[in-house]
């Protein structure tokens, strides 16, 4: 994939390259003096699985280009720029700020609590679902602060159930519900929920390794 900084046009064939174009375009809008670069993209990260691979690519490119240009990096500014890149006409993905923010502010052995209040209220049901989701997040924070793994696992299960039941995220991937509900029944699994917007069958599970692997082999 090759493109010029002076001609950033959407590529209809190699679509993943548009993420790079989008990032470059947003950095140029912020008046950063970017230069040309040869970049190798290599990863063992699962793509198209709801694991924020696009945001990870965007942030890596942005940080790399900023480092080459010897420019100071403000993490929040760059994270928002990457979100705009994904929303732009070059990529045309209407994502929110969650993925870019988590990748920017996360640290090893830590979780990130993001506050997106006030929520956009378009319908009564939207408002009520927002309040329920926020309460579950705050309950999860309290459970972790009190080292209550059982409670946190229960909240994971509730979160997965509501995501699938209220939003139908498994409509096109029935394997997702099967995988999540099967995992929740396994000994050693404290909780499990979906990852991403339902376009793949990938889940997040909280497990006790020794008990989980024994029950996993028996189940399958």
Describe the structure.
The protein has 220 residues and is mostly helical. The protein has 2 domains: 17-105, 2-Layer Sandwich (Ribosomal Protein S5, domain 2); 124-219, 2-Layer Sandwich (Alpha-Beta Plaits). 52% of the residues lie in helices and 5% in strands. The protein is built from 8 helices and 2 strands; from the N terminus they run H-H-H-H-H-H-H-E-E-H. It has helices at 17-29, 53-68, 75-87, 98-105, 124-145, 149-167, 174-185, 209-219; strands spanning 189-194, 203-207. Strands 1-2 form a two-stranded antiparallel ribbon. Strand 1 (189-194) and strand 2 form a beta hairpin. The longest helix is centred in the middle third of the chain and has 22 residues, at 124-145. The model is unreliable at 120-127 (pLDDT under 50).
Put simply, the count of helices is 8
Cα-atom radius of gyration: 20 Å
Order of helices and strands: HHHHHHHEEH
Structural class: mainly alpha
What is the molecular shape? elongated
What's the name of the CATH homologous superfamily of the largest domain? GHMP kinase, C-terminal domain
Query: What's the mean pLDDT score?
Result: 86
Beta-strand portion reads: 5-15%
Assembly state of the chains shown: single chain
Considering the chains and any ligands shown, give keywords for the structure.
Alpha-Beta Plaits; Ribosomal Protein S5, domain 2; 2 domains; 8 helices; mainly alpha; 220 residues
Provide the fold topology.
Elements: H1 17-29, H2 53-68, H3 75-87, H4 98-105, H5 124-145, H6 149-167, H7 174-185, E1 189-194, E2 203-207, H8 209-219
Antiparallel strand pairs: 1-2
Helix pairs in contact: 1-2, 1-3, 2-3, 2-4, 3-4, 5-6
């Amino acid at each position: 994939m090759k493109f010029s900084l002076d001609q950033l046009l959407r590529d209809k064939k190699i679509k993943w390259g548009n993420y790079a174009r989008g990032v470059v375009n947003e950095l140029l809008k912020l008046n950063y003096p970017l230069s040309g670069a040869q970049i190798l993209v290599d990863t063992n990260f699962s793509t198209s699985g709801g694991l924020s691979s696009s945001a990870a690519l965007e942030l890596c490119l942005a940080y790399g280009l900023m480092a080459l240009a010897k420019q100071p990096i403000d993490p929040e500014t760059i994270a928002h720029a990457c979100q705009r890149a994904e929303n732009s006409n070059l990529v045309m993905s209407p994502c929110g700020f969650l993925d870019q923010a988590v990748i920017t502010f996360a640290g090893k052995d830590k979780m990130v609590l993001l506050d997106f209040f006030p929520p956009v209220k378009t319908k009564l049901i939207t408002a009520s679902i927002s309040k329920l989701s926020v309460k579950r997040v705050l309950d999860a924070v309290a459970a972790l602060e009190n080292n209550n793994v059982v409670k946190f696992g229960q909240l994971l299960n509730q979160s997965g159930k509501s995501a699938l039941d209220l939003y139908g995220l498994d409509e096109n991937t029935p394997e997702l519900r099967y995988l999540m509900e099967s995992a929740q029944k396994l000994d050693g699994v404290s909780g499990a929920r979906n990852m991403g917007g339902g376009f793949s069958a990938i889940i997040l599970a909280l497990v006790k390794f020794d008990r989980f692997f024994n029950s996993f082999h028996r189940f399958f």
